[in-house]
Records
---
Amino acid sequence: MTPPPVDRPRIEAAVAEILAAIGEDGTREGLLSTPRRVAEAYAEFFAGLEVDAAELVRSSAVASDPEKLGELVVVRGIALRSVCEHHLLPFVGQAHVAYVPGERIVGLGTVPRVVDALASRPQLQERLGEEIADAFVEGLSPTGVLVVLEAVHGCVTTRGPRQVDSSTITVASRGALAEPAARAEAIALITAGDGRG
């Protein structure tokens, strides 16, 4: 079931209430357009709620001769922006997706579209990587999938411990790329040339 589109007027009313609740004057010049701006931002941040990521993969997949596909496809350095579901604060970073082709491949532009669709909803980084891997398994049936996410979380950098230099890395793997040697090889390709490898 597809959720309804973001209800912008309802978000605007909620933001106006939040401004009043923190003791601000929502009618002052600097805040007059804030509820509308937040509603527009939320419509963008949460647009992925209406997207079936596995279908994005499935509809982009094309059959190919397995003998001519190569051993591994890696798309690294995909810009990642999401919103943590615990505090509704952003987390930003990079996603790296690798897969071992089965009988089909996807257009390379599909990989960032899948990442963006799944990131554009209230998320946890740990779950996001798993969902990206599952979308490729369901939509493509590859021999293996590996998803590495590295992100900086607003809830860690701007509140509580305020650890501005910390980042979080998560790994999700399926099939052949869940095997330690193959996973290590794929991770080495992802980190090659970035000072981590």
Note: The mean pLDDT is 93.
---
Amino acid sequence: MSSQPRSRPGGRSARVQQSVHQAVRDLETEVGRAALTVPLVAKRAGVTPSTIYRRWGDMQELLSDVAVERLRPETTPADLGDLRADLEAWAVQFLEEMSSTAGRAYIRDALAGDPDGGNAGQCSAYAFEQVEVMLARAGERDEPVPAVDVVIDHVVAPMMYRILFRPGLLDADYVRALVDTALTRLLPRAD
């Protein structure tokens, strides 16, 4: 995203962002990604091209911003009553969504238009927040829980690596093994 400061998240700024994002999604469906241009998106969104250039910088940064929004989880992770079940269900769903053709495209877009690393940080924060929810629930049930970073480093990070660089080598059994490692070998030791 552009390194320029963002406007406050409500009011006109929020309406502009919403209409521009919607225009990108609609036009991608109607004319295809290759045909997207700032003037075309601006016309559909009812804003001037300069509004888009000022806020996003260029088309790649706009696509990146739209991708980050699409990668935002829509719900909290399911509560299945047990940390292992929660993590496995969440990780398998994460795998399915992120390894899909659309998911990989969103990840690439989010990172490609990210000169300052803010989008990567936001996507990481999404996963971190989801894992925090599951670990907090498990803690309330008095289950032993690993640190959030253990789950990120040993479940999410290997999945993302394989999603991006080795997509044929990833399945639900692999994900369950990652969860098992995080829950059995990486839990904090009782003193």
Note: Confidence is low (pLDDT under 50) at residues 1-8.
---
Amino acid sequence: MSDFAAITEELTRRLKRAAPGLRVIREGPEGIELMSDWVHPRKPGEAVWFGGVRLGKAYVSYHLMPVYSHPALAAKISPALKKRMQGKSCFNFKAADQALFDELEALTREGAALYAKT
């Protein structure tokens, strides 16, 4: 198993553990996608995409929409994790980093709770 495959598996496991009430819309060896029950503010009747993990050629991506939709959550991102950030809600990893994975899991758990309240 490649390092990227192992990272994908671990991040997928952590995402599911941190957001257990969310709906899995895709899951496989190349990652996972979760939908919330939160209604999209600009698209009535549609749910909001919560996040996911994607195995890429050059890195593994962890997408977490709550850090985009809730600025107070984004403000909690450590400088070390912020260095892994691509865009407004994506974090890329080329190697496993348990401390950053722990932080992402905590952010995910808090984000899932925020989406559940909305």
Note: Residues 3-117 form a domain with the Aspartate Aminotransferase, domain 1 fold (CATH 3.90.1150).
